[in-house]
Amino acid sequence: MAVKGSVGDSRDPLTLNCYCTVVKDQSPLQVKSLIELTAEEQETASSNKTRVPLRFVAVIDESGSMASTIGNETLIYKMKIFARVMVRKMKAEDMLGIVGFDSDARVLLPITQMDKDGKKAAMDSIESLSAKTFTNLCEGILTGVKLFDTTEKCAHCRNGMVVFTDGIANQGITDADGIVSAFNSIAHQTFGSNFCLPISTLTIGDYKPDLLLEISQRLGSDAFFWISDMNTFETDMMIPFYLRETSLVSDVHVTLHALNGATFDIKKMTTDRMVTGTEKTPVEYHIHDISASMAKHLPCYIIIYDKEKKMKNKPILEVHVTYRDYNNVPRELRITIVFINVTLAELRKKFKQQTNSSDKAVIAYMDSSVPMAITEVTRAETAVAKIAQEECRTITLQAINNAADYFDLDEIVMSKDAIKETTDYIVQRKTEVNTVLSGESAVLMCERADTMIEALDHCLTIIEAGRSEGWQTMKTMASSLANESPTVGKIFPGKARPFAPPGMEAELEDYQKIVDQQKQQLQVPQKPVPPPKPKTFKDRHVAVSEKLSKASQEKIKELIIEHGGKPVPFVKKKAAYNMLVCSRAEFNDKSVKVRDALENQIPIVSEEYIHESIKQEKMLDFRDYRLI
Known about the structure:
Blueprint: E1 2-7, E2 14-22, E3 29-39, H1 43-46, E4 54-61, E5 69-70, E6 73-74, H2 75-89, E7 95-101, E8 105-113, H3 116-126, H4 137-147, E9 158-164, H5 176-191, E10 199-203, H6 210-219, E11 225-226, H7 233-237, H8 239-245, E12 247-258, E13 263-264, H9 266-269, E14 274-276, E15 283-291, E16 294-304, H10 308-311, E17 315-324, E18 330-338, H11 344-355, H12 376-408, H13 412-436, H14 439-465, H15 470-483, H16 504-522, E19 541-544, H17 550-562, E20 566-568, E21 577-581, H18 584-589, H19 592-599, E22 604-605, H20 607-616
Parallel strand pairs: 4-7, 4-9, 9-10, 10-11, 19-20, 19-21, 21-22
Antiparallel strand pairs: 1-2, 2-3, 3-16, 5-6, 7-8, 12-15, 12-17, 13-16, 14-15, 17-18
Helix pairs in contact: 2-3, 2-16, 4-5, 11-12, 12-13, 12-14, 12-15, 13-14, 14-15
């Protein structure tokens, strides 16, 4: 079986495609399906169409570390430039709010329309940004959410939030579950269940931004943004704005119904986009928005227990999509997939016979109201290629995630093996598909396979080099693959930026021109570059006890990172963890971490050791601070 169904007409900015193939020699019978959602701007309507106004909130870190210098510019200065560029790019009907956060959060600019007066107010508020104390990320996010309202004036706006921090959350709620729960609670209480607010998160630095990564995946549909190129910092910060500005559809809900006794293989269908679903109940996915010339894919695996002959020509899947178009008007698409099991060889033979006769047979889409003049063979080959393409993406995503996790645990061999095994599989899969496909279908699959192999090779280079930012780079790549969304530069090999819409690179160049103009206009005297801080804990791995207060834990971790070390979660025999920081009480209780450290002869020291070593700009003798 290899079929494709599609719906969408000239009035719809969203097209729904469904591709299906039957898994060979499997009992019970399994059908691989791929749901494809493509947002395309319609040429006939583009001249008369104006985009819905944006309602955007920037949530900006003002913690003390934002005073750190990159080249001759502080981070807080670079954030001011980014905010000014965003104000410049907004149209008069757009709205902007700005929140700054350190230990607490403050509203620098309430939601304000970006007409002439509004832009002046925004520029003034941006200048008040300054580096202060700790990092209460949760309070910043929640304050940003509260800025949005549901007045009639804003009922037809496209919402978005961008959050930037350069360090670990060490005040307020500091775990992902807590932050997501607090966000959902406030959003539901204030706006109801129909409020769609995509959150994009951005960060820099050598610390492990696992909290921010998880928040971005659960509260947004963009890639995670870990900025590694300071030369394009401000323009990279603008990517979420570009994606909101060019989005054609928003608040996309996809509901899958298995029909006639078919069930779902739910384990193979689970992604961050899944909202709910079981083997025997409808499965729902949610995507915040889709920009012009971008596509999103959702996996669907259907198990059929009845005999094949009994299921012939019976519906096995219904796909129902609801969304809002570029005018925020609710729309829907619906398609039903019928079970037809036929091989490519049989189709080719049938088509050859038909084309030799006077009957020039073509096949229609599953929705009979939408004619499609393609041959049955072409449709089947496209389905095979698309599903193989999707398998390459998802298996690469899994491999890079696994490799990053192993890399973080210093399991270098396992990290490399995860990459190599997947590369070998994709090469094999590419060969298999090329034996049954030809022409455009084969090219389609090969291009995706080659792109994934390049990404995997890049990860292998990172692992072999032992780069300190390896986890961040690989997790950012995986996030881009998972969300089919462009991320910042210098993450993928070379100049590659997979999933970037065609017009994005040109727009980024325009942003960069505005960045240069803003820096010239501000004429801020360049500060002398301060001498770098001594890397007191260079290449040292430090485990920090959870028995310490939350504030102490996070402060110690920040200091370790700032002075060249790496906080690690465990003391392990195979890894080169150099010390454990804990309290006297935990040492006396002989916790698991303490026992592991003693067994592996790893020094166990008090908090004072960290502070005194930094003060004297060198690692002091362990013996004076050991807990024994």
